[in-house]
Amino acid sequence: MEPAGPVVEPKPYFSIGLRDQPRRSSLTPHDRFSGWTGRLDLEIRVVSAYLHVGSGVIKVDAADRAYAAFVRRDGELIIPGSSIKGAIRSIVEAISNSCVRQGAGRAEIPPSHESCETIRPGQEEKATLCPACALFGATGYRGRVHFADARPVSQVSTSIVKIAELWEPRRAGGRKFYHVKQFRPLDDRPELNHRFVEAVPRGARFSTVLTFENTTSAEMALLIRALGIERDPDRPGNGTFIFTPKLGGGKPRCLGAVRFVPRALRTVDPGAGKLIPSLAAGGRARSLGSVLDRWLSDDRLLDRQAWKDFTRQMQATDASCPTGLY
Ligand SMILES: [Zn+2]
Questions:
Q1: Domain locations in the chain as residue ranges
Q2: For residue 20, how far is its CA from the centre of ligand 1 (angstroms)?
């Protein structure tokens, strides 16, 4: 007789190991105009069965079920720019061998990968930061990239979806990401250790803008790769979607896989002296394909081994997501 007990399913996540010392370099000043400054318009398409980005608000539906509401602003569904930035930063950290930002439950970080130093006023000239902190910011240093809140491209309706409760796995000396597998629907009954979330379905589309300031091509390459785009080896000069980043909540239950589709690019030409011209004034429209290819050809900040591991593990499979313990 087999002993009865909970069925434990395969883990829905993987880790990217921490190797070598992060390569830290001196700060890019904000008061001089150099490199790339501009905006990349992006469409976000929901690729998994659902996307849920929680606002922290709990509502009750007509069937008396309590559910976690999707974020809204002025009545409109949005994906906050901060949550897009957080997801993309985590990928940039992994593929550039950057530091691991400190937070709750992150006790097993080796000294080499502890958070970069706090930048104190007057110490900017001597300070160094890892690639992710240099791009996204560190304590005392403002980041040079920003995502606007993403708004629906067209009418998007939501559903109330039941998922099993989530248990955060213990952090194990690496960076954790969730595999891209298939969502398994559950019945609608309220049940112990389950909850309901408001989610938008596959095919829903949002638009956001990535603005960047004084970046290098190698930094732009990290960002574009973190959005899931790589050069197509079979079609030189073209990009290809290589994986779907995950946004929002319920990632262990296979929610949140999205595709970032570049739509338009505008840049501000350097040489305008010390004043960074306002992008609101327009900037110059650029050919997406050729600039993206130029950026992606600069892989000086890329940890090739981590990139290889990451993209392999992020490939979508037809396997079902665990609905129970793992
Ligand atoms: Zn850092």
A1: 29-313
A2: 14
